[in-house]
Amino acid sequence: MSGPRVNSFFLGNSSGVNFSIIVSPIDEETGKLQVANCSGSKRAADWNLNVTPGMNTAKVTISLTRNLQLCLPNATDCCTTPLCVVETLQVLACRNSVMLAHLLVQAEIYANSSFTGNVSENATIIPNQVFQPLGSCPCDLTAGACDVRCCCDPECTPDLKQLFNESCFTGVFGGDVNPPFDQLCSSQSMEYTPDWFPFLCVQSSLNNTPFLGYFYHGSTSTPKVPSFKIPLQTSPGKLFTGYRQGDPIMTEENEYFTVPQRSVAGQCVGNAPVAYLQNFDVKCLTNLASYKEGLPHDVRINSGTGDFIQQSVMYRTITDTGKFITESESLHTAEVQCRNVTFAEHYTFILKDKDIEDINVTVFLGSLCDGEILTQRFTVRFLSLKSTNAAELLGNPGYQVGKPVRAANMNASDTFGSLNIWQPAGRGLCTSATYTPVIFGLDSLSGCILEVGINEDCSLLRENVTEKLNSLIQATHIGKRDNSSYSDLNDWVEIIRLDPFNSDTNVSTGSLKGICPDIPANLNIRIIFADVGAVQGIPQQEILAVQISYSTVIWQFQCGLICENSISFLPITTSVQFIKVPAQPPISMTRFQINYTEFDCNRNDVCWPQLFYPFTRFYTGEPYSQCLAKGLSLAFLVLLAAIMSNPWFSKLWNSSLV
């Protein structure tokens, strides 16, 4: 052991066991330890033994009681050498004078060298650091001891200073708390002083030094848990002029309105802010031990214009918890603790223009017990106040990458439609596969496997495959934009369908079983889109046309030696391709770009043709008026620097001072 305390454990039943400690000197001639017996006690010399019994185990603690400080002059209870303790200990566990176990401990403990004196309990009076330095020796951090490399420390003797005399701390930390700063006019004699230095130098005494700011106030504050807050508005009135897409929704307390969401890593974050016009539907796993309540439903929300609205909450009770309880662990206890928790929360934001008009919240409650794993569901969607259909979302004036493509069925009374692709599950069979919507801008390929018998009728197989592929497209039109209105047919484009080739051939020539030609096994969805502008700097894209076609294959039954009463598989796939128009061909290089490559911005780090790009109309990072004002200010400073760098200006300035 190298410290004043060490722990060990005695494994087994410690009832009736007597623990003792002895200091065992080593025989210098034989090098053997003293023979131990069970007549010892729990204290030996400067050592104490403490035993904490437990379940089939006991914690044994050995502690040193002596002082480990280095000796000062005329001191007694201290360490005379840096290696303060070198002893060999034996810990014995006996029952009825029979030794059950023993532990050998070699102790080599060094003295504490960081502190060699007593600290006064009186509070230190700290002067006002605004007008004078905190101390003449800031590197003196240890009271009553010499700090290494701190040459201004009064506790450092000349002998100790010789050890680090050439490595002392410099600057303010090393004790030079009042150095002449570079801005003083008296520092003009310094090397490389610019010509404009007399014009901008400071005439001040050393008592008024900027280094006092290093120790300004020195007050401490208690740490606070960071929260999702924005700076408070100092001016009265409305906070906002309306929300924009992606803006966090704020509460009355000027905090973010949060709902549990899934992070990039796939984990659920309980205090994730809700972004304006961004719908989501997430599921989070939890149990009774880790369950936490979310944001209270009595929190009022900022409507976007400074007004605050109250949430309309409706509570419902779930009796069938089978859809939410995904796993149940077997419990051995007779009594199981249960608690009424939130199973699901559905938020619906009713919008009018850029403002939030109302918030409807539906909370589903149920009982969760120990050992059960709950799948919580949280949904947020934004609806337009002008919409009479709950399915009509208030979206963007154009599509953005990552958003679902909107579809409509204009031939049905309920115009809501869907455009989906396969999402296989389990073995990948079509009978267990689910649907997932087509995402704008994401080319995808998915499929499933259809079980087919050897005696399958080819006509029925074609109809079955076509029916399954058509089930993915429950729509006649696709929305041009994300905010297409179901009541305006001009906001939609009709889906162009190229029906599969209808073959009347039932089997191949020779009436062979297990071969079917012209099976429409591939569904091809091509979506043509283009850029139509930008809103608040965000590019907006619009769908121009949608085409659906089929690719046929020849299906042949695959089997081994025996094909009777066996099943083969037919993979059917769906592909989605987004095509942007018009096509952007590469810009041909001019003869100047070919011959003078040093002026090519794509090949060089320095781009001279774009030197004044921030001052042109093509730069949209900030308003043109601000760019122009900053450009004129920069030009004035450059002109002023050029004038002041001339020798005649220095001569004129020196003559004016005389």
From TrEMBL:
Biological process GO annotation list? cilium assembly; protein localization to ciliary transition zone; smoothened signaling pathway
Q: Could you tell me which residue ranges the Tectonic-1-3 domain spans?
A: 241-384, 398-581
GO-annotated cellular components: MKS complex
Q: Which Pfam families match?
A: DUF1619_N (PF25752), TCTN_DUF1619 (PF07773)
InterPro entries under this entry? TCTN1-3 (IPR040354), TCTN1-3_dom (IPR011677), TCTN1-3_N (IPR057724)
Per the database record, which ranges form the Tectonic-1-3 N-terminal domain? 112-221
List the keywords (alphabetical): Cilium biogenesis/degradation, Glycoprotein, Signal
Q: Which family does it belong to?
A: Belongs to the tectonic family.
What is the protein's quaternary organization?
Answer: Part of the tectonic-like complex (also named B9 complex).
Q: Mind telling me what this protein is named?
A: TECT2 protein
